[in-house]
Amino acid sequence: MKPMPTLRQLRYLVAVVERRHFGRAAEACLVSQSTLSAAIQELEDLLGAPLLERSRRLVVPTALGQDIATRAQALLKGAEDLVDAALAARDPFTGPLHVGVIPTIGPFMLPQAMPALRLAFPQMKFYLREDQSARLVEQLHAGGLDAVVLALPYPMEDVETIEFARDRFWVACPPGHRLCKASAVRPADMALEDLLLLEDGHCLRDHALSACELEGARRNVAFQGTSLHTLAQMVANGLGVTLLPEMALDAGILRGLDLSVVPLDGETPYRRIGLAWRRSSGRKETFHRVTAVLRNAMTKGPAPQAHQA
Question: Which CATH class is domain 7-87?
Fold first, then answer.
């Protein structure tokens, strides 16, 4: 039988390649540096080739070492999913769940959703990480996260998703603005305005442009904000108008600002909110149940009234 590397050896190699340092890798793996070095030496002897170039100050993977470390990450994630599947078969609603959430959803959804999740799953511990969609999806594939809450559609491979809410866009503008006179703002009307949107990297920017049918009119984007709160302040300063999701309005993002809001009209004046997880995950029953709780928690009360600050 062909000799095979152990998961322990592969985990140690990945840790060294990621950190470029034996000491820090050993600390991350909770072992001594000598134990980690010996395991990697055993792996090199097994494969018959050097995986790392060692010097006093620096550790650099060889081309083979980098390739094996990349392949090992997928193997280690598969082994972890295998264990998760076994644990989930015993009790899918206990233990830790690491969930990522994007910044245009987290601050507005979590105060409403987390009490419902804690009540529904008292034996689960939810660990949350807020970041932009691209980095969250990267961490999802790498195994650092179990699931991600984000706005759909978003380009992802080897994942499953369930939509649990539709978050309508509202136009925020200063009182007396021409758009405030309408009961709903047509997408064509937005093309004539200085539209304030989030900077590149925030998927809400693309979803807002799509909702008001301005994909080809990015020249109308006058300024870029770093957060929805910043956009609201810029509108209050008379720099233009913006699109805000309903969950942000429900959370009081315009509190203290002299602004009006009017619903956006059109075929799809909303963004879709969903939960995504790796297709290989063994916790699918957990995610389906979590999504059901989120859907119930996100059921809206009365929508914001047009022309009210």
Answer: mainly alpha
What is the spatial distance between Cα 171 and Cα 40, in angstroms, rounded to a whole number? 58
Q: What is the DSSP letter of 264?
A: B
Rounded to whole angstroms, the Cα distance separating 271 from 273 reads: 6
Residue with structure tokens 């060692």? Answer: 54
> Within the chain, which residue ranges are assigned CATH 1.10.10.10?
7-87
pTM of the full structure: 0.70
Q: How far apart are CA 10 and CA 183, in angstroms?
A: 61
Chain centroid to CA 165: 16
Question: 161 vs 143, which has greater pLDDT?
Answer: 161
Q: Is the predicted pLDDT of residue 268 greater than 50, yes or no?
A: yes
Cα distances from 248 to residues 31, 105, 137, in angstroms, run 46, 8, 23
**Quick check: 162 pLDDT over 90?**
yes
Torsion of CA 193, 194, 198, 200, to 10 degrees: 100
Long-range Cβ contacts of 22-28 (<8 Å, 24+ apart): 22/59
**Residue 197, φ and ψ in degrees, nearest 5:** -135, 170
pLDDT band at 302 (very low <50, low <70, confident <90, very high): very low
- Asked if residue 215 has pLDDT above 70, the reply is no
Q: Tell me where in the chain the CATH 3.40.190.290 domain(s) lie.
A: 95-309
- Let me know if domain 95-309 sits in CATH 3.40.190.290: yes
The pLDDT value recorded for residue 221 is 53
Give 227-245 pLDDT, tens digit per residue: 999 999 999 998 889 999 9
pLDDT at 120 over 80: yes
Backbone φ and ψ of 63, nearest 5°: -60, -40
Q: Where are the alpha helices (DSSP H) in the chain?
A: 7-19, 22-29, 33-47, 63-90, 106-120, 133-142, 187-190, 203-211, 228-236, 246-250, 284-297
